[in-house]
Design goal:
- This protein has helices spanning 44-54, 64-71, 94-109, 115-121, 130-138, 142-153, 175-185, 200-211, 253-258, 260-267, 298-311, 333-344, 377-380, 392-400, 426-441, 473-483, 487-494, 522-537, 540-558, 570-590, and strands spanning 3-5, 10-12, 18-22, 28-35, 75-80, 84-91, 191-196, 212-213, 217-218, 237-248, 273-274, 287-294, 317-319, 349-353, 361-366, 450-457, 462-468, 500-506, 511-517.
- The chain is an alpha+beta fold.
- It folds into 3 domains: 3-218, 2-Layer Sandwich (Cytochrome Bc1 Complex, Chain A, domain 1), CATH 3.30.830.10; 237-322 and 345-366, Alpha-Beta Plaits (2-Layer Sandwich), CATH 3.30.70; 381-398 and 409-590, no CATH class.
- Helices cover 39% and strands 18% of the residues.
- Helix 3 (94-109) runs parallel beside helix 8 (200-211).
- The longest helix is centred in the C-terminal third of the chain and has 21 residues, at 570-590.
- The protein contains 20 helices and 19 strands.
- A hairpin with a 5-residue loop joins strand 2 (10-12) and strand 3 (18-22).
- The protein is globular, with a radius of gyration of 26 Å.
Amino acid sequence: MITILSSQSCFIHQGGLTQRNIVNDDGYCALFIVNTPAVDDSGIGHAVEHFVFRRSKIFTDPSTLFQLTSLTDLTINASTSSSVTYFHCQSQCPATFELGLRYLLSGLISPIYDNSDLQYEIHDGANCGVIYRELLGSQLDDSARRQSQIDKSDISVERTYQYGGDSRFISKIAVDDLKNYHGQHYQPAKISLVTANVNIEQVSTLLENITFDNGFEQTVEAQQNYRPMPQQLPHEFERGQLLARWWIDPIFFGYFERNFLALSTLLLPINAELVPPQLNLNKNGLFALNVIVYEKNIEQISTVCKQFIANNTPPIFSAAIHLKKFTYGRYSPAINRLIELHYGSQPELSPPVRLAIGTPSLHRLTSVNLHHSCENIAKKTLRKPVEHLLLEPLVKLSNRVNQIKPHRYYSTNNMQRVSAIPNLLHSLYLEAIEQLVDDVECRNCNDTQSEGVAVTYDLNNCVIVTQVAVPNGALAAIASYIIGAYPSFLSPRIQGHCYLVAAKYLEENSHLVIFSALDVTPALRFKTISQSLLLLSKDVNFISKSLKLAKVKFCNVYHQAMSEISDIMPSTIEEFLREMSDEIIGVNKHGASR
């Protein structure tokens, strides 16, 4: 059943899910908005976000997400902040988008919470767990590490929470915590959906099939409300240093972002450190301006800040600014337009606000000692066997996509051909390129599909770069899609040994880059990657079933006809993978670069 509120162009589906839809040239897009308040430092909202993607009653295999995104043009992701979580997906293909929308709806409404998944997706009590690896990675960044120290220093009732999670708490999250938080905040009536070019009846049909078993019994179970974890008080402090905090209306967040460098420079002579502002709001809806200062300079920092504001007068706002606009850089233009539509339909007037700061709240600056457990690393990183299958939803999608047709929206929303690797891997990538230059000069490449392989790693990451012969660019791109969907290759991520493992073809440099980020054993990862490539090269069934989807994706991304890649057969992929695996093993024998 669909209820239409014509005055607001809003559709209310079964269970209370609201949907707004627009028609434009952005392809098929969907944005789910879920209010997920941070109520402690456990990162419970962040954890539920991960489990929405992991498994559901319809999509029970944790590799579904990665097979979907690797073998199709579907982009799908989520991000959690202090008050809201966005889940979004988009595709140019209606069949692919429908599968992605069904996958998201199923995860949002009926995720599977199981004890066996806690150690993989959150923390195993030692060094593994996807969220634990992610939190360790955030501590590699000086700014993030400083912000974590600040969050732990303020123990007042006005404090903000570490919505991404604190490594001291995440191992305490239990299945009941996940169920209760989900049951409290993920009810369909509390979820808003904004779409572009998506049929209302299509959403209604998908939603009803997910929400009800046999058309009668509702599968969403009522749970108790989530009970926040007790706060852990600091017991060691930096001598003589204090945290000074001003609580400020978030409409001025942009003002302090723009003037961060200028104000920081003015505070340096009095040995005070202005911390980059974060849009993490407390329960009163205010963000904190933080300064680390020695006790003797407290009065001086107030004087400096007040004088700076007097000399650089910010505007007076008469209407509330929707804070979500500050996060626009995270999303594609198409998804940003949906965010704009959602918040633009909810005008919030406020009285004129003028920026003024008074006396800051003061807190002792806690000491933060990073401690990484090394317990049972070898045992914890042994991969468990996986089934090497192309999942049935992908098989069905492959059968639906029978021919290549130019997608209606490519003229205005073309996919990017170049897939950038994460910034934290950039230095390793450059090291690998230097190795390749020497390698290519020393070998005869006339009879090979690649021109060399280089492997580099550090304490947290592993990067493999293959220099692909230029005529084999299409082969390398298609192979990267198939690699990224193979269960053996994905197993380190699925089983919590790293934060991300992926294969990307960089067209500009003819590089096939395979990497594992925030890995518990990066020095060993290139060995398991080589093994998975060799295993895949012998898996004719998986290659044959996934090749059709990979070719469709390639032709749409690179605007090529299927006839131009007709010579790429399963045997061609098998040979390419086998050769690459052999070359990685060869690099291993001579020693990878560290």
